[in-house]
Amino acid sequence: MTFSVxxxxxxxxxxxxxxxxxxxAVGARCPWVRAGVGAxxxxxxxxxxxxxxxxxxxxxxxxxxxxxxxxxLATDGWNPYRQVTVIDAQGRTAFFTGAExxxxxxxxxxxxxxxxGNMLAGAQVIDAMVEAFEKTPGLLAxxxxxxxxxxxxxxxxAGPVHSAALRVVGDVIWPxxxxxxxxxxxxxxGQLDALWQAYRPQxxxxxxxALNPTAAPSYGVPGDQ
Length: 225
Known about the structure:
The protein is α+β, with helices and mostly antiparallel strands and 225 residues long. Helices cover 30% and strands 27% of the residues. The strands form two sheets. A six-stranded antiparallel sheet has the order 7-8-1-2-9-10. Strands 3-4-5-6 form a four-stranded antiparallel sheet, with helices on one face. Helix 3 runs antiparallel to helix 4 and helix 4 runs antiparallel to helix 5 (188-199). It starts with a strand and ends in a 14-residue tail after the last helix. The model has no long low-confidence stretch (mean pLDDT 96).
């Protein structure tokens, strides 16, 4: 029902995730990122709590991703139904897919990324995602979206997807990109990309407004001086 990619930019240290699903509002349950710590995708029959648990183990216990993932899974009695991927602030990765994962499923770690999915049109979808992430230059958000477009081009899910989400963290504690398409009859990834293209030129402005309002550019709304 879901495919995703978690990734890291080695130049900026940004961490992020892009994800899409046939289910509604995948961005409400499955993507988890924490600045300076890591990014986690919790999918298949998801337990959202696994995301914060993995991130807590990474941050508070300074565990490597594989150990943090094992620790989080140990708190859940339904592991065969879970699929989880992890990348930490150093670019180290881990992933898990339970025996009850739905349909065709696969997870692959690449350079500074992990892609995974279930109910796929074919295993080649995940390989295409990793290749696209590794070969695409530029900002992390754009690389994550390129990976998602590659998934669709390679066949995507066995059925149509209806929701998608993109989340990226940088030097501040809140996400610098947090965009969602909770339901679309067609092409939620294309709609998510359109949101990113609209948000991208304004991303730095919102950071400036938060960190130094006196340096903020015009808001461009009625009544703004």
